[in-house]
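INTERNAL TRANSFER SHEET
From: sequence group
To: structure group
Subject: YdhG-like domain-containing protein

Please process the attached sequence and return the structure record in the designated field. Keep the field labels unchanged so the import script can parse them.
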Amino acid sequence: MAEGNHYSVLVDEYISGFTPDVQVRLQALRQIIRESAPNAEEKISYQMPTYALHGNLVHFAAYKNHIGFYPAPSGIEAFRKELSVYKGAKGSVQFPLGQPLPEELIRRIVAFRVKENVEKAVEKKRKK
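Return from structure group:
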């Protein structure tokens, strides 16, 4: 992923639109994703920071009381038990702003999504 590319600047702008305490949390989440998916492309999609590798991996967004994390329905399903302590939906989870980010869990979810997308890409190539 090229540092300082157009999309990284857009993600910087997105993050800078929040209060300093929320910015710290968003930067921490961004760093976890970058470390867990170093080959993913960072971009803005659906008006939120998005990471793509053979398709969308994860998105995140800040709201008034939480950070929304969107690892696709498969990412939620695979970690359903651990995520059950958080509000969420089929493809999303809400991390309350008043609680620490579950960094290790996020790392595992992103790694799961990377593996899933790479496997799908390999299978798709094999079928050609």
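Handover comment: The chain has one domain: 6-127. The helical segments are 6-16, 20-36, 72-78, 80-83, 103-127.
Transfer complete.
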